[in-house]
Design goal:
heterodimer; A: 293 residues; mainly alpha; MetI-like fold; B: 316 residues; 15 helices; 76% helix; 0% strand; globular
């Protein structure tokens, strides 16, 4: 290094990732949204560590108590604390969102990359056919059928979501990999005799990270929103409590003029989804230089 | 290639898809699905009675044979009887029109309003109006459909609030009654759809506006309004068509499931929901198969529309 000999500043040579982080940190809305999401995550982590909301199932009050110091959001129809239930549900939302987002994105990346790398082969054809088949089955019916087939396992909802959410990611990754496989460095890797799985895993897939990050964030929000609908319909979360179950419970209350349960679950859910959507937008802006803002 | 020939070829290519859908749904819903033996038996059945019912239901036969039977029903459109004793064909003929009447106004209006808002936002790109429209769209996208449904029902239906429209139910006795009953579900559908669609359409229009041919047209002094319709809107048509077309199968069959079961509307969505809850397989079978066929038809129609909109697209 002869940095001392040259007074000129060394040209900034940072990776795409570092540039994306810098870009993201300049986005004020995105940073606020990220802070809100982290606040929710802290609330969820507290539940996992057993610091709070442990008495979400206990009958700590009487029917429909208004908000008070003891019950911040009041109590529900059978006298459970709505605040504790809403906070506990936050952790359930994160569990569902994280599991589905990670599994669906990983599956989409692996299958999409395989289809794209071997585009035109029988493997690609079979995968495309399978994606088409899964897309053509109505989603709620599919989840219900998965629930039956898994004999009412508590994971049925998650399995149903993972089994369908990977398709969007796989299609995008497939397209990107088809572009990447013609580039020289991939050809060079093939020429020196690296096996295809190694080329895909080490040289092709890392270049789809921008797609995977955005898709994972979309899947996270999608899973949380879908949980609410499925639980509301009675084919989602089976035991415990979740925002969807709270809203389902509240339909008996709102017509009697008691809104606390409905508002608590709705507002908490809206806050998280809104913050995460905004965060995902900022992420997309930071990662995709071609996107027109 | 003539369009009819093209459509026929595509129709044949759609066969593997329909077969796949029936295979997956057979495996999930019938083979691993709920065992209905004891539902059909009386109290304290004997071994022989159990065996007889099981053989009637086909539980004692191998997978391939049972799947072949399932496929035969699908091909001949003979879906048998729902658990209520009503033929599935009659049930569909009764419920599908209700669903279409319920969903169509919101579907059409939702897309039109979204497209309008997206054009305004893109036209004022970067200004306050754009930011406001996009912020509202993100709000619409972030509220759960369930919440909108319940919230709108309270605000528009409950007598404590506005009380303009019925809380739930369905009537087609007169046009006025029909409009009164679809008002709240339609508003709820539009609210959520506008969130997603406006963002999608704006991204499309905004990207199209930065194209070289648009800049060239502007340099030639072509009026802005004409650039908008000729150079921008026309080029956006293909993704718009795809989005509208591909939402048809789910909207026509499954999309109204939530609204119909919540508002007590006797459409195919509620029938499907009840079939899910009770494990009524003939109904589920029919709904899944028909959606798959609709899906294939939509793909074909979509390709043909591409050809109509963009002469560069070849049907080869």
């Amino acid at each position: 290094m002869n940095a001392t000999a040259l007074p000129l500043p060394a040209p900034r040579r940072d990776s795409l990732g570092a540039r994306a982080v810098r870009q993201f940190r300049r986005d004020r809305t995105g940073m606020v949204a990220l802070a809100v999401v982290l606040g929710y995550l802290a609330a969820a982590a507290g539940v996992w560590f057993g610091w709070w909301a442990t008495d979400w199932g206990a009958l700590t009050g009487t029917k429909w108590e208004p908000a008070s110091a003891a019950h911040w959001f009041g109590t529900n129809i059978i006298g459970q604390d709505i605040f504790a239930r809403a906070i506990y549900s936050t952790s359930v939302a994160f569990e569902v969102g994280l599991v589905v987002a990670l599994a669906a994105t990983a599956l989409g990346a692996a299958l999409g990359a395989a289809a794209g790398y071997f585009a035109g082969s029988w493997l690609d054809e079979v995968l495309l056919w399978f994606m088409g088949v899964l897309e053509a089955i109505p989603f709620y019916l599919f989840v219900a059928a998965v629930a039956f087939a898994l004999q009412d396992s508590p994971w049925a909802m998650q399995v149903g979501m993972i089994a369908t959410f990977w398709i969007g990611t796989a299609r995008l990754v497939r397209g990107e990999v088809m572009k990447l496989r013609g580039i020289e460095y991939v050809e060079a890797a093939r020429a020196i005799g690296l096996p295809s799985p190694v080329i895909i895993a080490r040289h092709v897939l890392p270049n789809t990270t921008h797609i995977l990050l955005v898709q994972a964030s979309i899947a996270f929000v999608g899973a949380i929103k879908t949980e609410v609908i499925l639980s509301f319909l009675g084919i989602g979360i089976r035991d415990g409590v979740s925002w969807g179950l709270m809203i389902e419970e509240s339909t008996k209350e709102v017509l009697a003029g008691f809104y606390n349960n409905f508002l608590a679950a709705s507002l908490l859910m809206f806050g998280l989804v809104m913050a995460f959507n905004t965060f995902a937008d900022a992420l997309q802006d930071a990662l995709d230089p071609r996107k027109v803002g | 290639m003539p369009i009819a020939q093209y459509a026929l070829r595509k129709l044949l290519a759609g066969i593997p898809l329909v077969i796949g859908v029936t295979l997956v749904s057979f495996a999930l819903m019938v083979y691993f699905g709920p065992d209905r033996t004891y539902e059909l038996l009386g109290k304290n059945p004997t071994e022989e009675q159990i065996a007889e019912v099981r053989s009637q239901l086909g539980y004692d036969r191998p997978f391939a044979e049972r799947y072949a039977g399932f496929l035969r029903e699908v091909v001949t459109f003979d879906f048998g009887y729902a658990a209520t004793g009503e033929p599935v064909a009659t049930l569909l003929a009764r419920t599908v029109p209700v669903s279409l009447l319920l969903i169509l106004p919101g579907f059409v209006l939702g897309h039109l309003v979204s497209l309008g808002l997206a054009l305004l936002a893109a036209y004022w790109r970067g200004r306050v109006a754009d930011r406001l429209i996009m912020a509202l769209a993100t709000v619409g996208m972030s509220v759960s459909f369930v919440i909108v449904m319940i919230g709108f029902q309270i605000v528009f239906g409950s007598s404590d609030w506005l009380g303009w429209f019925p809380v739930r139910g369905w009537s087609t006795d007169s046009v006025g009654e029909y409009l009164r009953y679809i008002a709240v579900p339609t508003l709820a559908t539009m609210f959520v759809a506008i969130g997603y669609d406006t963002r999608f359409y704006r991204a499309l229009v905004a990207e199209e506006m930065t194209r070289d041919h648009v800049r060239t047209a502007r340099a030639y002094g072509i009026p802005e309004a004409r650039i908008f319709t000729r150079n921008i809107l026309k080029n956006c048509l293909i993704p718009v068509i795809t989005r509208v077309m591909f939402s048809i199968p789910s909207v026509a069959v499954g999309g109204s499931l939530l609204i119909e079961s919540y508002f007590g509307i006797p459409g195919v969505g509620r029938a499907t929901y009840e079939a899910i809850i009770t494990g009524d397989q003939p109904v589920l079978k029919a709904v899944v198969t028909l959606t798959a066929i609709l899906f294939v038809l939509v793909v074909i129609l979509n390709d043909i529309l591409y050809r109509v909109v963009d002469p560069r697209v070849s049907l080869e």
